[in-house]
Amino acid sequence: xxxxxxxxxxxxxxxxxxxxxxxxxxxxxxxxxxxxxxxxxxxxxxxxxxxxxxxxxxxxxxxxxxxxxxxxxxxxxxxxxxxxxxxxxxxxxxxxxxxxxxxxxxxxxxxxxxxxxxxxxxxxxxxxxxxxxxxxxxxxxxxxxx
Length: 146
Description:
The chain has 146 residues and is α+β, with helices and mostly antiparallel strands. The chain has four helices and five strands, in the order αββααβαββ. The protein has two domains: 62 residues, no CATH class; 62 residues, Ribosomal Protein S8, Chain: A, domain 1, CATH 3.30.1370. A hairpin with a 2-residue loop joins strand 4 and strand 5. The protein is elongated.
């Protein structure tokens, strides 16, 4: 296992699961303290180097009980948003494209697209994902193609 400080600096001291800041000086015994998560390592091919990520201790512990949840920003206007973590994992495995949200207008779709690209780039830095906005039925669909 790598040093927490090294991993924290690589991840800019943000929890890869909840995207909230992790206190570099926090106690590793505190719920919001730093911990090293190797969940991503289970998704890599055998023989590939393990991928370790920074997580709050609480987020890391809860991930062992339930599937990780990556929440959409409450500042976005999206309808029927897909679970981000599961969508990324499906695209990692099979490729293709997936509708991840609907937005009432193009401005909302663009804002959601910009946020999602930033979030996904930190969630899965090993994947080259993009977004696509498509009008239809009086709304705008937001896709993640791979």
